[in-house]
Design goal:
313 residues, mainly alpha, globular
């Protein structure tokens, strides 16, 4: 990952060159680039390689390449809060069974974000069988992860923990670190909610060590939020503020509204606990504007609830 990160400009140039002479290689490079650029929140590089790969796949009539590139562009547009184009591109990808399952997994993320939890579960369940038939362990892990996130949102922490541990067990034999860190982050979150702070903290600390080496701003932010929440619940307001302010800064650096907004409710709570309710209210109001643009209704509801509590202080 560090090598690819240092070669990002070369990767863009190579993908564009390959588009003229070897379409298959072009979209394979673009698929690798999606991971690198998305991980490091480099949205411009992400768009460049995906568009080069899509042009090559279309010119060659390669439906698999087109599906993969369209889903990647859909994810990119979602990061940019371009919800309409994201859905249009994703549905356009539904001509390939495996590509359709991947598109459905990305759409399930949008469904969760917008509060359509039943639809999110249906997409994850439908995709799981396709991923298993294709031998796609990445997809096999992410499908139950999505279901576990819905169960957490519905307050079924025990059920969520069972499903998320199953997702982690699927991800671990593959050997790739990033999928395992994704699952471990959500297992740690379920453990935190379940009232197991020490075990949760160990999970978050492991997640944090990995993203710091890979440049994953969103992953670092999530781990710091978890550690900050644990400190806050334990009554250590100073430690909570330290972790959550660091998470907020990483969220700002990522350029992704949602990544930063997730840090705001616990940071506002810590600010209120530290006797700074005005700072908490300002932070919450700023984050609410971003969530309104995204129509992220569940997160907006959490922010509004936090604002009401901060206003009562």
């Amino acid at each position: 990952m560090r090598w690819l990160g240092a070669e990002r400009e070369a990767l863009v140039a190579t993908a564009r060159q390959a588009a003229r002479v070897d379409p298959y290689t072009a979209w394979e490079l673009a698929a690798a680039g999606e991971y690198v650029f998305g991980l490091r929140s480099d949205l411009a590089g992400w768009q460049a390689v995906q568009e080069a790969g899509l042009a090559a796949a279309r010119a060659a009539g390669d439906r698999t390449g087109q599906a993969l590139m369209l889903v990647g562009l859909g994810r990119l547009r979602a990061c940019r809060e371009e919800w309409g184009p994201a859905r249009e591109a994703l549905f356009e990808a539904l001509g390939d069974a495996h590509g359709a399952a991947y598109a459905g997994w990305v759409l399930s993320y949008l469904d969760r974000l917008h509060g359509r939890l039943d639809e999110a579960v249906h997409r994850c369940e439908r995709g799981a069988a396709v991923f298993e038939a294709a031998g796609d362990r990445y997809g096999q892990a992410h499908s139950p992860r999505g279901i576990g996130q819905v169960l957490l949102a519905r307050g079924d922490t025990g059920g969520a923990l069972e499903v998320l541990r199953r997702a982690l067990a699927v991800a671990e034999p593959g050997g790739a670190a990033w999928p395992r860190m994704c699952m471990l982050r959500w297992v740690a979150e379920a453990l935190r909610i379940e009232g197991c702070p020490e075990e949760a903290a160990r999970g978050f600390a492991e997640v944090l060590r990995h993203p710091r080496g890979s440049g994953d701003l969103a992953g670092q932010c999530a781990a710091l939020i978890g550690l900050g929440r644990i400190a806050l619940t334990g009554g250590d307001t100073a430690a909570a503020l330290r972790e959550l302010r660091a998470a907020d800064e990483l969220g700002r650096r990522s350029g992704q509204t949602l990544v930063r907004a997730l840090a705001v409710p616990p940071l506002a709570e810590a600010l209120v606990a530290a006797g700074q309710p005005a700072a908490a209210r300002a932070l919450l109001e700023e984050a609410m504007e971003g969530c309104r643009r995204m129509n992220a209704r569940p997160l907006l509801a959490r922010l509004e609830s936090a604002l009401a509590k901060a206003g009562a202080v």
